[in-house]
Specification:
Aminopeptidase, 21% strand, Immunoglobulin-like, 536 residues, 5-stranded mixed β-sheet, disordered N terminus, globular, 17 strands, single chain, alpha/beta, Serine Threonine Protein Phosphatase 5, Tetratricopeptide repeat, 7-stranded mixed β-sheet, 3 domains
Length: 536
Amino acid sequence: MSLYKTLFLLFSLHLVIPAYVSDSFASKVSPEALYQDARSDYYSLLASHKKIQERREWLMVIDKFNIVSKNHQNTKRGADALYTQGLIYENMYKRFNIASDGNKAVLLFLEVTKKYSSSPLVDDAQRHIGDIRFMQRKDGSAEKSYSTVFKRSKAGTGAINSSAQKFPGVRITNITRFSHDDYSRFVIHLSGKTAFRAKRLVKPDRVFVDFLLASPEKEVSTTSFFKSGLVKSIRFGKSYNSTRIVFDLNKNAYHSITPLSNPYRLVVDFGLKPPAGNSVSASKSSSPRATENRVASIAPVTGGGAIKTIVIDAGHGGRDPGAIGAVGLKEKDVTLALATKLRSALQRRLRCNIVLTRDRDKTLALDDRTVLANSVNADLFISIHANSSKNRRAGGIETYFLSPARSQDELETAARENMIANFSENPADNDIAYIMSDMANAQKINESVMLARTVQKAMVKGVSQLVKTRDKGVKQAMFYVLWRAEMPSILVEANFISNRYEERLLRNGKYLDRLAESISNGVMEYVSSYQVAMKN
């Protein structure tokens, strides 16, 4: 067998194509295959706590994308690969603080704007240049880069075509706060995308965030004080071309900052590891309303740890009905009924706090569900959903944990459940924005896998005693509702509402009782395994 056929066979079996393959070979392999191979390596990097700390691992992934951009320049994937190299260098610059990484990212983004001038990536590349220049404190250059995008968009509408026109800036429209003693989240809402930079300072402890050409709306208070939480106050400052928001801290807390798109907002999290044995005392400001069931005492620690709080999320709700069955059953109604029954089942067996993200038909943003779980120091987060498929014969039960999807089915399921989140149209940006922020915590992923396995096994076993069902197994995908959860978290897809037979099951109260009891069996098995693991 020839070398080409051997390597092609290895790739078709999803084995790794080395970065040192010859250009002649790379030019014969489809750009899609090469791109997906590079993307797979990128996911593996982001999912490895060890690899992500090694700069050479990042460079090896860049080499993979370079094979695509170098050998398939005149394809869409060639453009995507070049753009992704810029993203990787930009994130290396943020992580390792090496100036040459930032400069290399700028050069790659500039190459995208010149080589693929008609590509929808151009504006995003130009904004990334502005972001990097602002981080490098080259504010004039950052403003110029954003102005280029503004002028192009205005010229496209026929409204303006003047080189003198500058980026008009954005408005800070609102700041929402979610907080308790050991956790605080601030969401800064913006009227549009702009560059930002952040820095941590000590004596006194504070974090500031600068926004390029931004200004608060009149309704936004420029000074606020808080009686609880890790942040005691926030205040605004102003320079000639940026607005600064300062977070004054009560304690030496860790912080993380994540930008989100559509609508544009910046999520600023502050957190502490809760002390062992500390009870939950949640005080929330502008937070989702929760239905909380407390008990007089907490289960004693049998192995060095205990499950004190479980948050159950009834998927969808309010204006978001979720999937709708052939006979009209709405996913939001099924999830609320099942979540309520699961709460009752767990209350009978666990002496801990059970919290529902919603106890009625109300609209609840995907962000807010995880925020609630974090704000009450939840030990487990279980999001309840009903599956759907274009194939009306598709059926069965499956359980997900947060990790990059491996199959088309996983991608499609996540895409449907994520629909309300309104991500960026550029998938490469989405990959980074919400994989990087979550995948470094390998221990949490391992515990989520354990929880998913025990719940899936228990569901199939319990339901099979009542009806015939298909075990679709434990799967993984990037579900936004699990994003940034600080505890083991899973998403249960309880049967297919798009299947007429399973839709009838989901209307049946006795079936939902059995399903809820089965999920609680899985949780109990996990709790038992968790306590044994803690003891060892």
